[in-house]
Amino acid sequence: MLTFNIEPSSKDEIKVAQGEASQAAFQSNRLREQVHKLSFVVEALWNVLKSKTGANDEELKKLFAEIKSKSSDNSEFGTTLECKNCSRPVSSKSKMCVFCGAKIENENLFR
To answer: How far apart are CA 65 and CA 58, in angstroms?
Structure first.
């Protein structure tokens, strides 16, 4: 097992690290809430679609499986793209490169 011993060299560094950890926790909670809200939106849209078209849950599962099988990467983490600016790999879900800050242009509408 790999372990790290990280010892900040000053109280200021500790405060900065604590602030960054607090901010990351806040952002994580905010994203979790947004995903939760989006799940309600998706459910509502699916109910509207079912009522307007007569589709059923089995059809949705089948379509989902088809779309997922056509994906170039079936993992839950998505695919990676190469940043056109710095040539490093970035998530296809990213809007900007985490390495150089360049805008990532993904041609797939749903990724």
So the answer is: 11
Cβ neighbour number for residue 80 with a 10 Å cutoff: 15
Q: What angle do CA 80, 43, 58 make, to 5 degrees?
A: 85
Q: Where are the alpha helices (DSSP H) in the chain?
A: 11-53, 57-70
Any idea which residue has 């010892």 for tokens? 7
| pLDDT confidence tier of residue 98, bands split at 50, 70 and 90 | confident
- The backbone torsions φ and ψ at residue 86, rounded to the nearest 5 degrees and listed phi first, read -115, -5
Pairwise CA distance, residues 42 & 26, whole Å? 24
pLDDT tens across 61-94, in order? 888 888 877 765 545 556 788 889 998 888 878 8
The torsion angle over the Cα atoms of residues 82, 86, 91 and 93, rounded to 10 degrees, is -100
DSSP code of 95? S
Backbone phi, psi, residue 17, to 5°: -65, -40
